[in-house]
Specification:
The chain contains eight helices and seven strands, in the order βαβααβαβαβαβαβα. It is an alpha/beta fold. Strands 1, 2, 3, 6 and 7 form a five-stranded parallel sheet that branches.
């Protein structure tokens, strides 16, 4: 969900992409602020838009597994989840040459089966900080998304946003519109945006069992 650290670092994460329009817009804004993010990608979207994933990697962002078909089911079987993870790993490796070690369950739904299956497949399960979910998938306004994040952000937080969401016909995403305000606030208040793995690495001095820095 988050890590304990006194450093003013946070991890911004985006779920469900890559999107052919919104993800590049997000990458442009992240680049403007020299901010890094972690993208929890769906394998079926990677298959459709591989060039977007390549750009994410080229610009130093982290790629993580968010299953292939984005099945919203807290009772998913071990066999089906394993298939989803393996398929997503395969398309990511085919596209950018890496296999991610982070995984976020669809909708944040988890139980012992989901956690244990993820671990068996070499994944660390990553959710998000309790106050850092502005529910942008509900067509929340840009001003409300940015208000929720900037009002409550704390060092070590993991922020949840979505790059596959918006009004397709008008090419408008409230998440994209909110991002500039969020990043400006974080920059002006001394925060650095890092990947989830970087966040865990920085916290490893006080939480040595959370991740192997050499991995």
């Amino acid at each position: 969900w988050e890590v304990k650290t006194d450093e003013k670092i946070v991890a911004i994460t985006f779920d469900d992409g890559p999107h052919p329009v919104f993800t590049p817009q997000i990458l442009d804004i992240l680049g403007k602020y020299n901010a890094k993010a972690t993208f929890f990608v769906a394998g079926n979207k990677v298959k459709r838009f591989p060039d977007v994933l390549k750009r994410q990697m080229e610009e130093g962002h982290e790629i993580a597994n968010h299953t292939f078909n984005h099945i919203y089911n807290g009772r998913i079987t071990e066999a089906k989840l394993t298939e989803e993870l393996v398929l997503t790993d395969a398309i990511i490796e085919k596209t950018v040459g890496i296999q991610p070690n982070l995984y976020r369950p669809v909708g944040g739904l988890y139980n012992d089966t989901i956690i244990n299956t993820a671990v068996k497949n070499g994944k660390l399960v990553v959710l998000w900080s309790w106050r850092m979910d502005p529910k942008d998938w509900r067509n929340t306004s840009a001003s409300e998304i940015s208000r929720i994040v900037t009002n409550d952000v704390q060092p070590g937080n993991i922020i949840l946003l979505h790059d596959w969401h918006g009004t397709e016909d008008s090419k408008i995403s409230q998440t994209v519109r909110s991002l500039e305000t969020i990043l400006r606030y974080l920059s002006e208040n001394g925060y650095k945006c890092v990947t989830v793995s970087e966040l865990l690495y920085h916290a490893s001095a006080t939480m040595p069992d959370i991740i192997d820095p050499a991995s």
